[in-house]
Design goal:
Blueprint: E1 2-5, E2 12-15, H1 29-36, H2 39-51, E3 55-56, H3 57-68, H4 72-89, E4 93-96, E5 101-104, H5 109-121, H6 129-136
Antiparallel strand pairs: 1-2, 3-5, 4-5
């Protein structure tokens, strides 16, 4: 593992070799928090995490709009032009703008820990649909 100076702060950041965090990109705590700051982005991440599989932009917008009691078209527009490109740029989600599909790409323990903490703080269920189905079998 190597360390390199961070140009913006002068502090060192850790460059972890691939595979050290279940194959996902390891990012700084600052980067994770920056990803989680916008409420709509968190809501989209909650939905993507629960689904665990690709979802259409319209279905994602519909679920996020329901969480926010907002207009679906406005939510879809902001997801398409602001939040999903940011999530794709940072490697957190795979967004195919042409096919209008998106899926969570970073399922690392580190990212999941902070996403879970945010969901718990906002009292949003974060259980995956497959986990819910398994639990209902008991």
């Amino acid at each position: 593992m190597s360390q390199a100076p961070n140009d913006s702060t002068g502090e060192e950041t850790r460059n972890t070799p691939p595979g050290d965090d279940h194959g996902s990109r390891v990012r700084s705590l600052d980067a994770i928090f920056e990803i989680l700051v916008p409420e709509r982005r968190r809501h989209a991440l909650y939905v993507l995490y629960r689904r665990g599989e690709p979802i259409t932009l319209l279905d994602l917008a519909d679920e996020v709009a329901a969480l926010e009691d907002a207009d679906v078209e406005r939510v879809a527009t902001s997801l398409h032009h602001v939040h999903l490109p940011k999530l794709a740029e940072t490697g957190v989600a795979d967004f195919d703008a042409e096919a209008e599909t998106v899926r969570l790409a970073d399922d690392s323990d580190r990212f999941r820990k902070y996403l879970t903490a945010a969901a718990e703080d906002e009292r949003r269920p974060l259980r995956r649909s497959s986990e819910s189905a398994r639990l209902s079998e008991f």
